[in-house]
Amino acid sequence: MRLRSLITGASLVIISRAVLIRLLLRKFGRDVEKLNAGDHSSLLAAYAEDFVLHFHEGEHRWAGDWVGRAGMGRFLENLVRAGIQGQIREIALSGPPWALTMWVRFDDHADGPGGERIYENRTVLLVRTRWGKVIEQEDFYTDTDRILALDRRLTELGIDAVPKGS
Fold first, then answer.
1. Is the model more confident about 153 or about 5?
2. How close are the terminal C-alpha atoms of the chain, in Å?
3. pLDDT-derived band of residue 34, with 50, 70 and 90 as boundaries?
4. From the CB of residue 165, how many other CB atoms can be counted at a distance below 10 Å?
5. Which of 33, 129, 151, 159 sits in a 20 to 30 Å window from 7, CA-based?
6. SS3 letters for the chain?
7. pLDDT by residue (tens digit) across 109-134?
């Protein structure tokens, strides 16, 4: 009887984890679709007030730490202004529901005014949550030089950055 209870309990944990992953993929997938359409409000609502994004250092508009929900809002506004379109490909989880760590495979790209592809990259986002809100995120890109090239191209096109502190 104990073995049956153990197997049942383990099965429920595995099933509930799989359901949670599907729910997160659906929720964040919808949020990214809205972001792609220029609305970052529903995605931004997932971030805590004391959130910090650690982004790749360099001479580009996204470099460094973006602090607080307001900072993340400015970061996302820069993505929208740049015309970056993204898609979540996969999510993996660890930890309890009140303190999840997620690894998110996120692919993104941007096209120029003539429809030519001016940027394309693959990313893994390391995301930490507390009670359902994102509190920390670190982005790891396949090719960070592509970010620099995109920023130069955006400057050439006259697309200004939203400053971190405004």
1. 153
2. 62
3. very high
4. 8
5. 129
6. CHHHHHHHHHHHHHHHHHHHHHHHHHHHHHHHHHHHCCCCHHHHCCEEEEEEEEECCCCCCCCEEEEHHHHHHHHHHHHHHHCCEEEEEEEEEECCHHHCEEEEEEEEEEECCCCCEEEEEEEEEEEEEECCEEEEEEEEECCCHHHHHHHHHHHHCCCCCCCCCC
7. 999 999 999 999 999 999 999 999 99
Q: What is the mean pLDDT of the chain?
A: 92
Percent pLDDT > 70 in the chain is 93
Mean pLDDT of 149-164: 93
Domain assignments of the chain as residue spans, ordered by start: 2-156
Q: Would you say residue 36 has pLDDT above 70?
A: yes
In 3D, which of 131, 79, 129 has the Cα closest to residue 106?
Answer: 79
What phi and psi values does residue 59 have, to the nearest 5 degrees?
-95, 70
Report the DSSP beta bridge partners of residue 103: 92, 126
**Which fold does the domain 2-156 belong to in CATH?**
Nuclear Transport Factor 2; Chain: A, (3.10.450)
